[in-house]
Amino acid sequence: MSKITDKLREYRTPGYYTKFDYHWTMAVDLDRCTGCEACVVACQAENNLPIVGEKLMRQGREMKWIRIERYWDGEYPDARLNFIPMLCQQCDEAPCEIACPVFATYHNQDGLNAQVYNRCIGTRTCAVYCPYEVRFFNWFTYTWDEPLEQQLNPDVTVREKGVMEKCTFCVQRINRAKDLARDEDRRVADGEAQPACAQACPTDAIVFGDRNDAESAVSRKLKDPRAYKVLEELNTHPSVVYLQNSREPLAGSEDDEHHGEESDGHAASPVMWPERSTEAVA
């Protein structure tokens, strides 16, 4: 009986893999992001996201796996607009995985927060538990007018009414790269697997790769002193890392009050600065 309970306890632990085959990670350099939304368009085309229309958009039923958050730094007239791409953080300790009553969302062997569409019953519990608000519910079975239905990606399932969905790190591209590497008896090379958003970014603000490879581009990004994770204090252990803006803070802005306190001299993002969030809680 003890063996059974131990096994159940092991699989009740979020991210129960002790070691991932690959650990796919994304680094987003906020210095490079211009807010052009090329990543948003590429994601929509690659993953068969529907155009919900103006009426549903006004009702808050948009369908975007990646969105561009905007925030202002400084006060008028000395103000500056900044951007943060926000998508599923592929958390290693994902709250949504514990919340799902039918285990439609789970952690796979590559460290990805995967989704089984056929298993989902649409309780939307995962969306409630997600602190990043990056899960979306299909209120309808959407259709594409001619000739737009001809541009659907055959490698990606078209979701139907009653199913939750979110960013997958373009898992179909990852699997394609893994299949090729397996046929050639090797591991996936750095840069060989690229999600649509990273491929489309004109400024190379998005870097994607295997964190288990110490020589990969994304591993080098993780060592940057500007690196931070959104809502890291929640201990979700996201696989998306952001690099703070390194530009000088505007005079009179909230960052200017803290400028010089950081050992590396970089100005932190006013949205996700840990010191300020701690003071707010206190």
Q: Could you give a quick summary of the protein structure above?
A:
This protein is α+β, with helices and mostly antiparallel strands and 282 residues long. Helices cover 25% and strands 17% of the residues.
How would you describe this structure to a colleague?
The structure is a single chain. A four-stranded mixed sheet has the order 8-1-10-9. It is built from ten helices and ten strands. Residues 262-282 have low confidence and may be disordered. It is an alpha+beta fold and 282 residues long.
The main sheet comes to: 4 strands, mixed
Poorly predicted regions are: 262-282
So what's the CATH class?
A: Alpha Beta
% residues in beta strands? 15-25%
- Could you give the distance between the termini? 46 Å
Number of domains: 1
Order of strands, main sheet, comes to 8-1-10-9
Number of helices, counting only DSSP H or I runs of 4 residues or more:
10
Computed over alpha carbons, the radius of gyration is 20 Å
What topology does this entry show?
Blueprint: H1 2-11, E1 24-29, H2 38-46, H3 54-58, E2 66-75, E3 78-87, H4 95-99, E4 105-107, E5 113-115, H5 125-129, E6 136-137, E7 164-165, H6 171-183, H7 196-200, E8 206-210, H8 217-222, E9 227-228, E10 240-243, H9 254-258, H10 274-281
Parallel strand pairs: 1-10
Antiparallel strand pairs: 1-8, 2-3, 4-5, 6-7, 9-10
